[in-house]
Amino acid sequence: MEKDELMKMLFTEHHRHLSETKQKIQSLTQRVLGFFTLATGWLILTKAPPATELRYILVVAFLIIGGTTLLALHRFNKSYRAESLIISKINKVFGLFEKNKYLENESIYPGSWGNFGKESVWFGLGHHLVAIVVMCSLAIITTCIK
Questions:
Q1: Most C-beta atoms within 10 A of its C-beta, which of 62, 67, 79, 116?
Q2: What is the DSSP-derived secondary structure letter of residue 103?
Q3: Under a CB-based contact definition with an 8 Å cutoff, are residues 66 and 101 in contact?
Q4: Which helix (H) or strand (E) element contains residue 134?
Q5: What is the tally of structural domains in the chain?
Q6: Residue 1 pLDDT exceeds 90
Q7: What pLDDT is recorded for position 22?
């Protein structure tokens, strides 16, 4: 197999993995936010407040679900960053950051894109983390004051 063909195959495969990982992050966040929203709505709409024992169980369950979700997102994003770094290396092999290789006085990609995959493992997760922490907190607060 020729070098360029191998690089194209690797790029395609790693890009597919990157897309799948991004979808896993999005899907997990949506499902957990939906769960916390439903739980909070149920607590608000119930006529009688839950028993004290049930409150403790709910708070612990919310904390476990929120915590394990944050850990899973960290793991998925760590995989995403590793995959991103490989794609960046493949792009360098193709010379997509080199000026004058394909375009006169320009490179195909800006130089800043060469850092793809070198960001913090938490980079790009901020909006997911904030939404999950806020909804988990809201569910816990609703449990405690209902």
A1: 62
A2: B
A3: no
A4: helix 126-145
A5: 1
A6: no
A7: 95
CB proximity list for 48: less than 8 A, separation 6 or greater? none
Residue-number span of the structural domain to which 135 is assigned: 3-145
Q: Which three-class secondary structure state does DSSP give residue 77?
A: helix
Output the six-digit token pair for 23: 């979808």
Distance CA 31, CA 5 (A): 39
Q: What is the pLDDT of residues 53-86, one digit of tens each?
A: 999 999 999 999 999 999 999 999 999 999 999 9
Burial of residue 131 (CB within 10 Å: 0-12, 13-18, 19+) is middle
The C-alpha atoms of residue 103 and residue 23 are separated, in whole angstroms, by 34
Rounded Cα–Cα distance for residues 76 and 22 (Å): 8
For 98, list phi and psi in degrees, rounded to 5: -85, 130
**Gap between the Cα atoms of 100 and 105, Å rounded:** 5
Q: Cα(146)–Cα(112) distance, rounded to whole angstroms?
A: 50
